[in-house]
Amino acid sequence: MLRSFNRMRLAVGAMILSLTCGATWVLAESADAPDRPGKLSASEQDMQWWREAKFGMFIHWGPVSLKGTEIGWSRGQEVPEEEYDALYKRFNPTRFDADDWVKVARDAGMKYLVITSKHHDGFCLWPSKYTDYHIGNTPFKRDVLRELADACKRHDVRFSTYHSICDWYHPDYPLGSPGGRSEKPNPNMPRYHEYLKNQLREIIENYGPIAIMWFDGEWEDPWTREHGNALYAYLKELQPDLIINNRVSKGRRSMAGTTTRPDLNAGDYDTPEQQIGNFQRGRPWETCMTICKQWAWKPDDPMKSLKECIHTLVQVVGGDGNLLLNVGPMPDGRIEPRQVERLREIGQWLDKYGQSIYGTRGGPYKTTAHLASTHRDNVVYVHVLDWQGETIVLPNLPKKVVESTLLTGGAVSVWQRNDTLEIAVPPQYRQEINTIVKLVLDGPAGDIEPIAIETPQDDE
Ligand code: FHN
Known about the structure:
- This protein has helices spanning about 1-20, 50-55, 80-85, 100-105, 145-155, 190-205, 225-240, 305-320, 335-355; strands spanning about 55-60, 110-120, 160-165, 175, 180-185, 210-215, 245, 285-290, 320-325, 360, 370-375, 380-385, 390-395, 400-405, 415, 420-425, 435-440.
- It has 2 domains: about 1-355, Glycosidases (TIM Barrel), CATH 3.20.20; about 365-445, Immunoglobulin-like (Sandwich), CATH 2.60.40.1180.
- The chain is built from 9 helices and 17 strands.
- The protein is α/β, with parallel strands linked by helices.
- About 25% of the residues lie in helices and about 20% in strands.
- Ligand FHN binds near residues 72, 216 and 273.
């Protein structure tokens, strides 16, 4: 009885959904549809390039950069709504050069780029035909998505967009600023759905193929799992190889970014935010993190050191994740020179040691604050992020080490004794940021079960 009721509910739900937003979004086409929605995540094959890429550039940009306050969140807080919404009338980033931005990403070793096509503030970085609130109606006029998409093609960086589901500006979306805590006078969610669907189709048709659609702003009540799953299905119809994160639906566990009930909630990967995700090799995941403190540009915003950036990258990749590192370009269209310099330094490090990052998988040793490991075929890279003593003592590997070298240069000694694997590197060869020990095994590293490492603080 319950199952047939569920099926009927689902079918009715799908009918209401398709009637209300006039869309071809169907969750289940008929009463005998399965209780579960359709395909909710990409195959490992679809994710292959993404898993190998490891590192991308996140960009949060819009007229709010004129104020140096946070995009979306400062609307109706530090910046009165009326003032915030009028910023576009004087937004004229004449020093914007898409090739410059994309070359900064490429030279940093970033393989994909994700730009805010529309953030929670509703402003669109392309001349959308579904709203007047867009870049074409600024003094700048130029189509930022067009120029970035073309530059990404020229420099072999995959073009992707971040799109906010919530829209605190659009009159049809029920919630508004500050921070989604106010209500619009005459909302119309079905009409907003149509607007959202039309704009996403516009982006794919005009600037595609899009590598990733990075959704956000899904946490508010007007958006439901049914909406998210139907949107996922709709977009995959438009572009089957499009990768879509887990914030399209309602499964995300807050900033931890993991997905509750991936059998019910759509999304191709998890999205920990401003934190290094847990070691997780089954479901793909990506940490998004700011290079400074704020997502959008802020004058003198404290910036992460090279050591912090490299440690974050290594610990994320060691956990089998990707890192999406964010820059907030300035109101004149440039990425801040000090951020460009930091990214250049990261790129120099990856030029030397990228073999221990790109195309690897996390483990076999689980990441700790002091150490991470990555592997590819029969090679394990042990990343020693700081030395707690003369020798590193790890649980032994179930395969024989047939060769050991220091990728970062110098001498290394490795012993396998009973249940331990010991690594000794003379002090003069220990690197300030990351000492990488390359171990060649007598068989594939990929089938070694992940190994937890007890660290001194674990005993406290
Ligand atoms: O509210 C947004 C925030 O502005 C930023 O875009 C981050 C980046 O993922 N996501 C949301 C906060 O979780």
